[in-house]
Specification:
The protein is α/β, with parallel strands linked by helices and 283 residues long. It has helices at 22-32, 49-59, 83-88, 107-117, 134-143, 157-166, 181-187, 233-240, 248-264, 270-281, and strands at residues 8-14, 37-43, 63-66, 80-81, 93-97, 100-104, 126-130, 149-154, 173-178, 193-196, 221-224, 244-246. Helix 8 links the parallel strand 11 (221-224) and strand 12. Helix 1 runs antiparallel to helix 10 and helix 4 (107-117) crosses helix 5. The relative contact order is 0.14.
Amino acid sequence: MKVNGKSRVCAIIGNPVDHSLSPVMHNAAFKELRLNLVYVAFTVTSGELETAVLGAKSLGLQGLNITMPHKHAVMKYLDEVDVTAKSVGAVNTVLCKNGKLIGYNTDGRGAISALQENGVYTEEKKMVILGAGGAAKAIAYQASQDLSELVILNRTHEKAKKLAESLKSFGVKVKIGTLSHEIMRTEMPTTDILVNATSLGMHPKSGCSPVPSDILRSDLCVMDIIYNPLDTQLAKDAKAKGAKVVSGLEMLIYQGAVAFEIWTNYPAPIEVMRKAALKELKK
């Protein structure tokens, strides 16, 4: 990839960002389609967020990815925010267009696409989501348009309650509860799709799982949005039971693909992005 005077820049901003797979994934996609774009990562603290966002606008960047802890705070510095991102209360993708910054949230679409590409559909299904943070909100918002029932289990009752109330307009049956093994044992026998949207099981605590292995079943689909490690303890336990497992890497790839298409108006080269991300993870 040659950088010249006409090259445009996309970037991810957050703190930390040095672990991000987005640069290798998007640069591989840009190279595949011979687009004169480059993707870089910038560490941005909370105190620097406004300056960084306005700087991106002034410099004419093509687009941004926003990661923790800025997904909510960034919204007040944007010119427009699309309806999904407003409903979720978080932005993870920004398009710089005609001097305006437009915010989107691609996490929910990425998660649902990852499920569908693995033969799992949400129509009239029961889903249990562990967690009520930014990713959980995005997934719940997108999935609730088709689900028959959604159960949100979170350590903080108020966060789960607030998320449930925001989903009322979809007409889906929503239940909330604490993130406990006792409630999981009650809900799991009738659950079709389990989504772990917590950090339990992430490196360096990769031996942990939020779910007791004995309640997993072969006819269950398990999505763990963690991608480091690629095979979390929850994923290993689910595979041992014969369950369908969708890795967090798949969600990362598909949410990245939506962002790529927002920035470029080209279909994302999914396999190229997957191959680049996997190669980086194995290092």
